[in-house]
Structures are given as structure tokens and as C-alpha cells.
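Researcher: I'm preparing a figure for a lab meeting and need a structural model of a single chain. I don't have an experimental structure, so a prediction will have to do for now. The sequence is pasted below. Please return the structure as C-alpha cells so I can convert it later.
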Amino acid sequence: MKLHFSAELEHQRQAWEAVCGLFRGQETCRSEFTVSTAAAVDTLFAAESDLGIGNRLALLPDELLKNLRAVQLENQLPQSTAVDPHDLNFTVEMETGTGKTYVYLRTIYELHRRYGFTKFVIVVPSVAIKEGVYKSLQIMEDHFKNLYDGTHVNYFLYDSTRLGDVRNYATSADVQVMIATVGAINKKDTARIYKDSEQIGGERPIDLIRATNPILIVDEPQSVDGGLQGAGKQALAEMNPLCTLRYSATHVDKHHMVHRLDAIDAFEQKLVKQIEIAGGTVEGAHSRPYVRLLSVKSPRNVFSAQIEVDALTPGGIRRVKKTVQPNDLLRDITERDIYEGLQVGEIRTATGSKFMQLHGGGVDKYLKEGETHGDVDPREMVRQLINRTIREHLNKELVLRPKGLKVLSLFFIDKVDHYRQYDAQGDPVKGDYALIFEEEYRRLAAHPDYQTLFEGVDLRSTAEQVHNGYFSVDKKGVWKDTSERGRDGSDAESAYNLIMKEKERLLSLDEPLKFLFSHSALREGWDNPNVFQICSLREMSTERQRRQTIGRGLRLAVNQSGERVQGFDVNTLTVVATESFEQFAAELQSEIEQETDIRFGRVEPHLFAGIAVAAPDGSLSSLGSEQSQKIYDHLLAQGYLSPAGKIQDALRVALAEETFELPPEFAALTAQVAELLHKRASGLPIKNADKKKTVKTRKAVLDSPEFKELWERIKYRTTYRVSFSTESLIEDCAEALKEAPPIPSARLQWVKAKLVISDVGITATEASASAPVVLNDTDIPLPDILSELHNRTQLTRRTIQRILVESGRLADFRRNPQQFIDEAATAINHCKQQLLVKGVKYERTSDGAYYAQERFELKELMGYLDKNLRENTLKSVYEDVVYDSENERKFIDRLEEPHNDVKVYAKLPDWFKIPTPLGTYNPDWAIVRNSSEGERLYFVIETKSTQQAGLLRPAEKGKTRCGAKHFQALKSGVSYLVVDDFDQVFG
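Model: Understood. Here is the structure written out cell by cell.
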């Protein structure tokens, strides 16, 4: 199998465009420097040039700041007030599973094509991520070559024993990408990168890298920077980067945020799998002195622990959380005799050595965070967890295998010997977990529900073939517990290689292996898109383990052709956990709050500062902190927020009933403000696996004359052609370019700095800055503008030439070539998209192709009773209707009202697609109603909430316009409408 990648995913395009936008106006240029010749005994570089080639930034600080603020405004992010040209760090936040690695690799190609940058270094926190990036470059190489006219990129893993690669990196004119772990560069006293090397002519590798002025890409910077001491951050600065691009879902330090795709965005846009929890909680097991250590802390040297115990409450014995200190008696804490004699002993909070001592009554043990004493038989709990995971797996196989999708399940364990042991002769034998798995697999395989999956299969041999372990190995090939903290990372590397080498093979339906056991230390840097179940056979402590765990299965699934499959009907990740659905969701939400700026259920005064505001002249700026504070104060005054900023029920009601209003001075921003508030009020869309329901068709409606007539009118497929006048395109583009902002000349910025010489070195402190001086630079090399714009717009060179001439702006090209090309490409592409939609014409396909009504019964739908399912609908073709938003749920309620004139309706399934020049389009509703005169009317409706109406992207608007033309071409008497309220159709 060969994995395929989409080049046009909008959320990914926005991310790389944000970074490229920082360098608008940058000319294609490079720096050159001298590299010492290699030693005579080393002939490896005999043919190499002594000329080093590096990146060079031609933009002035104020130009960078202008670009940065424009990018932040476009992405509705708070705007920066200044940039330090000697410390350019930019932050890109992307939720796990949304293609972060693809984005920053694509960004490398874009930065080279647009601005000529050639030297890049990718720094990662672990061997696992390093190997994953290298693997991604390998499998994406052909994809990128097809997109970028065969551009060659030389990529390599930094290896201190192969320093010749570093010299080639410095001297090659090709695009160079070096991948290194922070562990290879953050030990200045011992790392070979800081030592003179004969392999490279006696120079230090770090000096060659510094001279290239590389663009640094930091993957998971919160793990690279190095905490309070900042060894990783110092190592990054040693490379003398042109700039540093920081990519993560969980930034700690946010430097000039340029793009954000957070957890809520990813789930709402269906960019990752939806999450459901199969939570198992123990009830009625209060016959032992149960104690679970949740966390320890020691503020101001006052040591305490949070524990979970079975305590006596007014409602009976309940499992509750308590805070205890050394010498506390658990009998007094719980008011239960069963805890008699048990006492809290030593509490330790040091990193890597956190525990609470529990002693007395014949007990003396040290509990780590997440560990328990007095719980039910752990082996029985493991059996139940494995059984539920296999059930979930087989249920998904029944649905997805016929669609060509391989289903994988992943078990995390904390010790290898639970799964694999070795006898006295060193031969491997199955551990408890492996034996339990095979027993439960055979038992469930014989169940009548799953007979179609196992016809003619030898269950004994099959049970052994469907599972395997992925663990570190020692020099003798013996599995061992994994640790990322080893001196050289070899533990993680050996386990990771096994996983990555078999990544594509695991996706094949011909491969029997489908249940994977892995070490809990391998939490980041690897995943497989077809992991549909994750079960942790170890306690989840409070150290962000829920988010790390689900992150291994969030990516959208891949079919047997290597293509991503869209839609939550396929993409659902089931987490099998030993806690309730509510507890898991609450803890996961808490972890996200700790790691991100998202504060579920709370609003901060600066929340609205990044909203774009139009000035009378049409220019855009951000709302700003002062105006954001005024809106916040209004929310407080209305009782929508508590004094601490917590969202109150009054605000939720106002948003749900669409009665939310702002003062007159902010009335135009109501939609944007409401959208941000809705996001904070909603929380994460976590589903309860036990409330999953299969949605069936309602035969009485599906077979009714009304619906059959409706379907007959809308079922036909169309093709489209785009016809527009080239003259109109040229005229519109020339006019848009004529109206584009003026292009400034290159300028010289003078800055005075004070030098202070002391025993710690020389430091420079900026003292003053003068106004920039325009440079009369008459010797600017002019790039091939026709080729550049052809590559970025796909228009012919002749058409581009006419646009440029008729715009009257070619003098701007001579003044600042790169910025003019950027402005021209933006203007032309915008006009082209508008004309495509305006000039599209539809007609029914010549072969009469259509969507068969029978497909409603062929594709199974799933919904969740407490989340996205409107039950017991009477007028719909389905007995229950799955909805995507609160606005849709309210629309269904109105459709179902008994006294309106709606006869039947359908939420159009995702297979009902209309082709458009901007991608396929799936309308929302098809409806039959009676008019007041008794005439039957037919509608196709697209619903957009009031909050969304002002935020539709041009592509979304374009698709709805194409949808209208599609139904016009059918000439079947169907009215197509885009509405945000039921009464706009039936009022």
C-alpha cells in the first residue's frame, strides 16, 4: 500500500500560508561564506566547493512586524506590538492528528519556491518523533516533487559520526533539511556538534550550521526548550537561525502566534476522529480499604496528597476525593472501620520520584500516582478491559471491513513481562495479558454476532496471529521496558523502528495482525490512522495521559487505496477506560485547559481582541484589548458571566435562542463575538459509547409518494463547465491589482545600541532608532515574474502579461519585486475564484446518472443519544436524525411540529454530493411542504447559524452558489435556499 496525501486541505493551507505571509516582499537571495577545505587524508570532499551557501533575510524589522500583524489579523489572533530581529520566533498551534508534520514539510517547499530559502533544521524532542519525520519525508517525497516541479530536497538525520553530512549541508545549493533530536545538541560540554572535527577541515559543525542562517522548525517545542534551565532553547539560539517556527498542539511559551487550530476547531471541522468513551467503573466493591493516589504536591514545603477513598457520606458509601497530609489516619478521613490502622506516611514530590507511603495494619507500601491499594482483583479488571476492547473492535469490523478499512486496536501496558516473559533457557513465553487476550478473543469469535467474520477460520491459530507486541529490545533481542530517558534514546528507537517499518503493512486487510500491545512510554511521535480502539491497561495518572493516549488514534482512517476517508460515520475512536464517561471527559478537558489557552466555560477580558474590524475606508484592523474589555464588561453587567468570568446559564440560553445582543457600538460584531462565546460554552464533543445508537430508516416515509416524488426531482447528477471571458478575467484582475495597496521601496533602518563590556561578555542594548531611509537601489535583480505568477495562479504567461500591463503597476515590480509578486498572486487568485463560480454552468449528465433511493438503506448511520441525535422523528426518512449543530437540532424541532405544513423531509446523507470547481458540496436538507393553496412545494435547504453567517469563507459561499445553479439546471421545480432560520422558509 502507498499512502496518498491531499494537497488542498483548507486547514493545512491556512497554516503554511500564515508562515509564508511573514515574508511578503522578501526577495529571492542568499548569503555566501567560506568553508575550510577538508583534511588531505579525507578525500570525501575532493569535489566539494569551498563556498558555503545560506539563507538571508532582506526585510526590515518594521516590514516583518507589518507582515506579522497582517497574518495575525487574517487569522483573528491578538496582534504583536514589536519584533526582535535577532530573536524571531513564530508559533503555529495545530491539534494532534490534523497533519502538523505535513504542514511544516510543505512549508519548507513553499518558502523555497517563493523566497529561495534553502537551509532548514528540524529539531525534535525524541527519537520517536525524529524517525517519524524522516519516514514522512520518505513517503511524501514523490507527492512533493509532483507539486513543486521536481524540486530536489536533500534530507538527513544528524549523526555525530557522520559530520560530512553537515559540511555538505553548508555547501550545497540544493534545499537541505537536517533532522536532529534536542538531545544531540543541548549538551554543550560533551556534544560533538560543538567540537572541532577533522572530518570537516578542523571546524566545529555548529559553526557551519550557524553560517547558513537556517530556518529552524521545532516540533513539540514545549519538550525541546528544556524547562527552567532552557538548555534546548540555548542550543537553538546557537544555530543562529534566520527565524524559528514552532509547531505543537500544546505550547507552553507562545511566541508571536500566527496560526491556531485548536482541539475544538479540529473536532468541529471533523479533521480528526470523534471520541467515544467506553467507561467501566466499579460499583459496590467497598469491602476492602480502597486507596488510590491521584497526585502529590508541596507548595511552600507543605506536603499533601490527593487520594480517592470509599468514604461514608450522607448518601451512603461513595468513592470520593480527599486531601491528606503525613500522619493522617484514614479511619478518621473516611469514617469507616475497615480503614482502621491505615495511616499516611512519607509524601515525596520530586520529579521522577513522586509517591505516598501507606502503612499500618500490616501494610507498608509506596503508592505512585495512579496506583491503588485494596482494589478489586487487577487481573479480573484487565480481563474485562480486554474483552470490551475486542467487542468494540469486532463491532467496527462488521461495518468497516466491507468498506475496505482495516481496523486496529491498541493496548498500552506499563511492563513488558505482563505480555511477554522468558523461561530459564531464554525462550519467550506468553505473559498474563497475552493469555487473557487469546482466551477472550476465542470466546468472542464464537459468538453468533460475529460468525460472518470467522467463517472457516481456525480460531486457535487465529487468536495467536492477530496480536503482537511492540517493545524495545536489548542486544540479545529480548523485549524490555521502554524509556525515552536513556542516554542515547536507543530503547525508544528499537521499539519505534518495529512500529514504523510495519506501518503500511498493518493497514492491509491481508495482514492478520490487528491488535497491538505497546509500552506506555511510547506516547508521542507515532500513531496509525486506522487505530479505532485504544485501551490503557494501566492507571491513567493526572500527568496529561488521557490526551497523549487518545492522540495515538485521532488521525482519519485510510482505505486500501491509501486514501483518507472522511466523516464521523467511519472515524470514531473508542477509548476503553476504567473510569466513567463523565470523569474521563472532565479530566481530558482539564488536561486541555492546562496545556492550552482554552478555558472551557470561562471568558477572559482579552478574548475578543483579535476580531477583525473594518474601517470606513475598507481597511481591516484588530479590535484590540481595550475594546475587548468593554465587551467583557458588558457581559458582566448583563449577568452572562460571573465576576471570575465563568459562563452563566443566561448566556447559554441567549446563544441557544439567538437573543444575544451587544451594545450599538459593537452590534456589527455580534456574530463574531457569539461564535467565540459558543466555543467557550460548548466544551469538547466527547461521546458515550454506551449511548451509541444505530439509526434506521422509516419505511413509511421512505416509501411514501411524497418522498418518492421529492427524490425523483433531486436525484439526478450533473456535470459542469466553466465559461468566462478571458477579457473579463484580465479586466477584473487588472482592476484588483490596480486597487492593491502601494508597494514601498526597500528601506534602511538605523538603530543605535549601547555596547557594555564586562567580565561576562559584550552585550548590546538598543538606545534609539531613526525613521527608515528609502534606498535608491537601482540594481535589484528582477525574477521571472511571468513564471512565478504562472506557478501560483495557473494562468498562461500571455494572460498574466496583459494583466500586469493593464494594471499600470509594473513600476512597483521594479521597486520591490517579491512583494509585488505576492500582491499580484493574491489579487489574481481571488478574482479567478469569483469568476469560476460566476461562470459555472451545470447540465444533467448525458447518461442520466442519479443517486438511487435504495442507498438510504444500504449505509448504516450511527448517533449518540445525549449528543447529536434527535430521536423519534415522524416526518423524516430516518427514525432518528443525526445533526451537526445546535442550529440544525432546532431546525429539526421546527420541521417536526405537528401543525406546520411540512409533509416529509430528509437530512441529505454525505454520499449526496454536487461537484463544484471549489470541491464537492453536500447540501443539508430536502423538504416537501404544502402551500396555503394546497400545492405541493419542494425545497433543498442549506442551514447556516446566525453566528456563522458573517464568517463564511469565500469557498463556502461559492459552493452554495454552485448548489443553486445545480438545482436550476435540473429544471425539476425544486427551490434551493440558504437560510439561518426556519421562518425564512416557512414564515
